[in-house]
Amino acid sequence: MLSILNLRRYHVLSTREDTHDYHIAAETANPPTQCIHCGSDNLVGGGRQEIMIRDHLVHAKRVAIYVSARRLHCRECNKTFTESLPDVAEGKRMTARLYQWIAEQSLKRTFTSIAEDVGCTEGTIRSVFREYIAKLEETVIFETPEWMGIDEIHIIKKPRLVVSNIEHNKVVNILSDRNKTTVSNYLFRLPNRNSIKCVTMDMWLPYKNAVNAVLPSAFIVVDKFHVVRMANQSLEVVRKSIREDLTTKQRRGLMHDRFFLLKRESELKPFERLTLESWTRNFPVLGEAYQAKEDFLRIYDHLDISDALAAYDTWQSGLSLGVATAFKPLITAVKNWRTEIFAYFDHPVTNAYTESLNNLIRCVNRIGRGYSFDALRAKILFTKGAHKVIQPTPKFERRDPYAIGRMTHYTPTVSAARTINYGVDTSTLLRLLEESKV
Predict the structure, then answer these.
(1) Do 236 and 326 share a domain, yes or no?
(2) Helix locations, 245-283, DSSP H
(3) Threshold 0.90, pTM exceeds
(4) In terms of domains, do 420 and 390 share one?
(5) Domain boundary at 312, 345, 378, which?
(6) If we measure between CA atoms, which residue out of 285, 304, 292 comes closest to residue 330?
(7) Residue 346 to residue 177: CA distance in whole angstroms
(8) Residues 84, 98: one domain?
(9) Sequential DSSP letters for 213-254
(10) Where does the Transposase IS204/IS1001/IS1096/IS1165 helix-turn-helix domain start and stop, copy by copy (predicted)?
């Protein structure tokens, strides 16, 4: 049985097997020779205590090791102690190898399924998971981005904050909520936070307040994607307003053709253009709203901020009353966030990872039934193979720069090179998830 158990610091005394488990009686191979309190070797036996520890599965069966642990009495300090058990995880009634297996499996499976496999309680699995994640949080350090993006995703029926490295299109953290306090605390704890030059975000006031409080020198840029989406939503308001006067067949047709309304005019194919013209010709208000949407998006074609501001003012003043009502949320947003929206023209950055992240969210939500937020966050952030890690090539330096002319002058030594982890590549992680490798 020793070859099966493969714990050389234990002697197996007996083995019993049933349908689901191996029950193994054992004792340590090397009893203690010194007192753990005073270091004296003047020890006498004080009986034994049976301690049950869990071990890694053997032959797909759970393993329980019943260790007959020695109790010893020290004649020097008059204290009694129980021998420590080798190869056992600190503070746990399980072997170190089982602890590591549970920790790694906790990123791939639900706590309940792992607990059923190894014969522990779900609370024990959760405890191992939390300790493992705490260790990863300390050892897996993502580079603080100079160009930071903050956005939210919906995981387990709640918006969560996503922090990204825009320059490298990588996710660097996911926070439990998007409140100002949460965002502020995260930004404050970032190493080298003053190196952050720009933060792009959507129009959520707590983000802006947090960044202004913690990163006063960073530029805030409202993500172009969110502004464009508001323009499309305003057009959708007009499209839905004309449905009441349509037949059932026409309503279905308009619902199908709404995708043509959302496309840029320059991207329309001939058939799509004809279809769109038929709708706008029969419903002039729809055509006016479509043109208003297109004119607004053309503002982003400008390269200079002053030209963009002038184009926006011209666009707003030229709206008819009916169209202006539909576009009121967009107009209000620009009024409240004018500086941050038009900062894009001085700092043209955007959360380019959005589409890849949305695909990842759909995959995570699909596999995430039974997972807690902490488990899903850990799966996204700490999956092996999904990080973009750069190990700079070491530079060679002269060992003795003053020994010119001597052979030692040309003997190189390797200088230390810092490993840089830019964050999680969402496309790579999505592929790993779809291939069921995590």
Answers:
(1) yes
(2) 248-262, 270-282
(3) no
(4) yes
(5) 345
(6) 292
(7) 30
(8) no
(9) HH-TTSEEEE-HHHHHHHHHHHHHHHHHHTGGGS-HHHHHHH
(10) 83-132
